[in-house]
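RECORD TYPE: inverse folding
INPUT: structure tokens
STRUCTURE:
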């Protein structure tokens, strides 16, 4: 029996018929020989914004962008997975010691949703900060003893103390903050900027993601690839994952015995074949493949130089703390972030897990702060010393905050904890056009709800986009019949934090 059945051949076995009938739209037009098939596919792709995104010149960004003069040229996002406790780090509330051990007032939580670990907060006991707070710098910013290095940089920092989110669990909340949607599948912030503004670096990706976890932590978070994904944008705009090692990019080196000249020839021939296939089908992922092969070839030279810290003087390394020489640590990634930024990378997403202190406020929170405090402040000082802070936006914060009430037994101090809390939390930003030495907004007297000048996640996204010279309502992408944007249909710029 012949194995070459027509799509409607009744003699074909049932699995073959099912497979042939399951042809999708792109395959249908792609298999059309000439004429209307290719023309129709080109029309469909153009309508959804796919072909324009993959034009060879798109590395320079979309026409008309930036919409206005940007304050920042690049972003380093120090994302703290697991949600740092605002109550214990930045959001000083003088009344908390007075209500320590007393039940949460019902008016603060009535009608609100909490994680299943808390359920109904009724009867939960209020918990005072673990460490005392002090005011720092000319700005008088309140920072706890947990973060002495960040405290010394308070006059370079803009604290936003009225953040609030819609999500109560980690992965949806992280996805929401980075992509504007709790469900995975939307482009993340770095992908949007990479798509809209292009990649100013010739030999490194425009969007790089790095991850780290404090040693010995019991509350590490999973790093999902969609945290730096491109969603429905072509995959050339997704974040390039750099591993925590001296060899950070997989499969970058040539196989044994392959000389650079041979590799160059193979890539040139492969690019010609891929371009022929693109002309035939119009599939935008083919252009992505061409661009990524070329970038990988360039990175064979740029990445080894990037990861060689031998040119960094001791006084610079000392800014980041003792772990800076250890690949995979937050300190190492902070210095890598600066090196990536000065080489033209537009968006660096440096993610550190371990902040999920459900029962370890009095133990692991100390380790977490020790691992992240000095490197974060060191990055500010390093960029400032190089004249890069003015046009580099640093963002520090997690996906939500922690509850002002305790999770666990208040009599068992070694096991104190706090649950997830989306209704008020603190992030901070430095450089890149934000006002230094100020605090924006405030939570209520118990740190429970955003009370003064609330800043929603979409508002933060809109503000970040404006600092990069983008009107968040105008950078859109048509997908499945709808125009999408990072801020969905929401978001107001917080002009009060922009210098």
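DESIGNED SEQUENCE:
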């Amino acid at each position: 029996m012949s194995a070459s059945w027509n799509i409607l051949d009744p003699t074909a076995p049932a699995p073959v018929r099912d497979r042939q009938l399951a042809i999708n739209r792109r395959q249908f037009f792609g298999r059309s020989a000439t004429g209307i098939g290719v023309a129709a596919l080109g029309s469909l792709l153009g309508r959804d914004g796919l072909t324009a995104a993959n034009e060879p010149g798109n590395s320079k960004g979309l026409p008309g962008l930036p919409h206005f003069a940007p304050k920042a040229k690049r972003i380093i996002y120090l994302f703290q997975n697991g949600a740092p406790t605002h109550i214990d780090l930045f959001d000083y509330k003088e009344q908390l010691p007075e209500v320590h051990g007393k039940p949460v007032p019902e008016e603060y939580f009535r009608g609100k949703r909490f994680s299943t670990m808390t359920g109904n907060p009724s009867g939960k006991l209020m918990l005072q900060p673990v460490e005392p707070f002090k005011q720092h710098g000319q700005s008088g910013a309140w920072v706890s003893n947990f973060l002495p290095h960040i405290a010394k940089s308070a006059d370079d920092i803009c604290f936003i103390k009225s953040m609030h989110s819609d999500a109560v669990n980690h992965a949806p909340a992280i996805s929401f903050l980075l992509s504007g949607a709790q469900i995975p599948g939307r482009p993340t912030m770095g992908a949007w900027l990479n798509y809209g503004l292009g990649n100013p670096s010739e030999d490194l990706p425009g969007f790089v993601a790095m991850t780290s976890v404090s040693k010995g932590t019991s509350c590490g978070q999973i790093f999902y690839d969609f945290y730096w994904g491109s969603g429905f944008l072509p995959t050339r705009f997704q974040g390039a994952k750099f591993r925590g090692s001296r060899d950070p990019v997989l499969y970058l080196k040539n196989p044994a015995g392959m000389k650079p000249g041979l590799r160059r020839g193979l890539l040139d021939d492969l690019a010609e074949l891929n371009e022929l296939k693109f002309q035939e089908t119009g599939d935008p992922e083919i252009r992505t493949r061409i661009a990524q092969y070329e970038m990988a070839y360039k990175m064979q030279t740029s990445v080894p130089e990037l990861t060689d810290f031998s040119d960094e003087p001791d006084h610079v390394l000392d800014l980041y703390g003792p772990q800076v020489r250890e690949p995979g640590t937050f300190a190492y990634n902070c210095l890598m972030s600066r090196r990536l930024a000065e080489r033209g990378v537009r968006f660096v997403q440096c993610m550190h897990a371990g902040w999920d202190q459900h029962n370890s406020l009095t133990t692991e929170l100390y380790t977490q702060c020790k691992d992240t405090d000095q490197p974060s402040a060191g990055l500010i000082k390093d960029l400032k010393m190089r004249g890069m802070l003015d046009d580099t936006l640093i963002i520090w914060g997690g996906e939500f905050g922690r509850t002002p009430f305790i999770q666990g037994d208040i009599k068992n101090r070694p096991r104190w904890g706090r649950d997830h809390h989306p209704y008020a939390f603190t992030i901070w930003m430095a450089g890149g056009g934000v006002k230094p030495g100020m605090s924006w907004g405030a939570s209520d007297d118990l740190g429970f709800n955003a009370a003064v000048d609330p800043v929603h996640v979409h508002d933060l996204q809109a503000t970040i986009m404006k600092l990069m010279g983008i009107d968040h309502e105008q950078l859109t992408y048509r997908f499945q019949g709808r125009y999408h944007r990072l801020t969905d249909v929401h978001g107001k710029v917080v002009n009060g934090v922009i210098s």
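NOTES: The chain has two domains: 61-248+307-497, 251-302.
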